[in-house]
């Protein structure tokens, strides 16, 4: 008998909203969830590795994949950095019956939701405020001043979309927020 097709779980937020933090916890708690490794043209951060965090590509390599239609969705951010969800990564796992977890931005999430409808759950992680988001992003220590400024500017616009997804969870106290994320995901998986 063929296996039931899987579904998509999208964690969406402005940069620094807590997607990676929640993703890590979900992957520890649910063995039926696989992470969709995106492609990007940005440089790896300390501790990131190719094929686990991202597929790190040159701009030419990325453009070639765009040309061949290999992305389900892709975007060019501030400073020209490109990010994209690989169609093959998502479809292979869905066909194997896995729930596939996407950590993507607002526009990417809207596109994927439009494509997959009720086969996708999109959770918007909202920071308690832009000031807290700024503190968290700065404390993470991964962004130079230009990147920090552009991410925050983009975040202000992205917050306007916070009510357009299946659920919005305020990421204030981490344990409280994760417990809501876990519950929402568990209900979706078992529905
Ligand atoms: N509830 C929380 N309380 C305090 N710090 C938090 C909380 N959630 C996340 N953080 C911290 O905030 C920073 C940003 O979180 P994280 O890296 O998970 O965000 P992100 O949405 O994945 O960001 P990006 O989109 O830039 O990849 C991290 O240093 C993380 O440890
Ligand atoms: N539309 C897409 N957005 C993506 C994808 N992969 C990651 N992202 C988003 O980019 C920003 C910045 O990420 P960072 O790793 O440089 O901090 C963040 O909001 C990610 O969610 C993707 O494939 N498509």
From TrEMBL:
ATP binds at residues 13-20. PROSITE patterns: GUANYLATE_KINASE_1, GUANYLATE_KINASE_2. It catalyses: GMP + ATP = GDP + ADP. Essential for recycling GMP and indirectly, cGMP. Belongs to the guanylate kinase family. PANTHER family: GUANYLATE KINASE, GUANYLATE KINASE-RELATED. This is Guanylate kinase. It comes from Rhodohalobacter mucosus.
């Amino acid at each position: 008998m063929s296996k039931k097709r899987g579904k998509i779980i999208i964690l969406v937020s402005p940069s620094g909203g807590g997607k990676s933090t929640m993703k890590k916890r979900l992957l520890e708690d649910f063995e039926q969830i696989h992470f969709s490794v995106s492609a990007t043209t940005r440089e790896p951060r300390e501790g990131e590795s190719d094929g686990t965090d991202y597929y790190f590509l040159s701009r030419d390599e990325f453009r070639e994949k765009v040309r061949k239609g290999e992305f389900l969705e892709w975007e060019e951010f501030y400073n020209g950095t490109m990010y994209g969800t690989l169609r093959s990564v998502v479809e292979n796992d869905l066909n194997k019956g896995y729930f596939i977890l996407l950590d993507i931005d607002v526009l990417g999430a809207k596109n994927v939701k439009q494509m997959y409808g009720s086969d996708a759950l999109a959770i918007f992680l909202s920071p308690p405020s832009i000031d807290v988001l700024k503190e968290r992003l700065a404390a993470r220590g991964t962004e130079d001043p230009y990147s920090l400024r552009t991410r925050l500017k983009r975040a202000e616009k992205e917050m306007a979309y916070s009510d357009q997804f299946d659920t919005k969870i305020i990421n204030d106290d981490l344990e409280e927020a994760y417990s809501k994320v876990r519950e929402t995901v568990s209900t979706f998986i078992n529905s």
